Fold:
Amino acid sequence: MTSRPLVAVALVLAGAASVLLYQRNMPGTPVANARPGGRGGFGAQPLLVATAQVTRADVAEELAIVGNLVGAVSVEVVPKINGRLRRLDLRLGDRVRRGQEVARVEDDELQQQVSQAAASFAVARATVRQREADLLLAKTNDERARTLFERSLLSQQERDDGAARFQAATAQLDLARAQFDQAGARLEELRINLANMVIVSPVDGFIGRRYVDPGAYVTQSTAVVSVVDISMVRLIANLVERDLRLVGDGTRARIDVDAYPGESFIGQVARISPVLDPATRTAEIEIEIPNPDFRLKPGMYARVSLDVGSKAQALVVPRESVVMRNSARGVFIADVGEGGAKARFTSLAVGFENDRYVEVTDGVLEGDIVVTTGAAGLQHGDPIVLQGGGPASGQRAGRGVPPGVGQEDGPSGQGSGGVLGEAPSGPRQPTGEPRSPRQSR
Structure:
């Protein structure tokens, strides 16, 4: 009775081991589960990888930021006088010039007030002319009275009366002139109000939005339309504290938008905030992009690359070849020996970086063959198979490999079948442990 359960358990364990062995040897079993030295007890299965050659190229470091485009100027056009809207002929997207009529408010009542003020102004002007004539007559009489008084032909009272009439005429003329100025000021005020019935665009640009229609009652706080100037567009973004030292006024920027794939627009940093937001530890920067053909539109989502440094003919590796292992950045070099190819990790000291290249200041030499596609799944010493075929027996893919070895074209890691130099003569270097990290230059 006791032997039956033991036999059943043995059968179950044997079946599980068979299934596991079958899965380990099935085609397509992940190579990451099988490492050198029989990780898991079943031997290593090489991983197919693509490679590229360490070479020299011009490299520029770029700082990537994103944001939305806004117009150079965006204004809400509002009336200066309350009233009912009579005309609004412009539509969405229409182009306008500075000072061009956008809309008009009903002005019949104000027109009548202007007419009345103009009539009052004319009366005031006529009154001034009359008072000037009265003053001239009073002056003549005063001079005649003085002459007669000096000849003792006129009494003192009559002489005083003549002088008083002259002074009264002078005062009447001053009053008439003041009333004339007052009437003129009132007329000018009404004419300005009448001109304000015409709503004009304060800037050159395009109608971005239309808020009301003719017949609506508008006030000085009612926006009629919005006008946006897009002859130049701006991108406002936040820059983290550690990157502030890399960017300054005039830093060149390359802008990419989804509306024009494969095409870039050039701008520059125009302004940098002198203070940081204490909550986010970022500073606001403003990038200006000339837009003479109006292809860029406010609201577009833009990706910006800021050129913060460059170096000519630097030693570079493809960016996808650089991986992290044990807190160190490095690459896997393809070492090829009689037993096949293996991946050897070596740490790097890097300089400028962009989305294509990483400059290497220490860690590899020109001509080394590094793993690109597949590097993320490797460990030091893993067996590998080079894409397109392997090198001949007894040769290595470290520095110099015979033509025909399947490798990617250039450091970019695109394509296969790149032409490499002949393998140098001399002893083959054995596969070793990872190099220790080196200090950055």
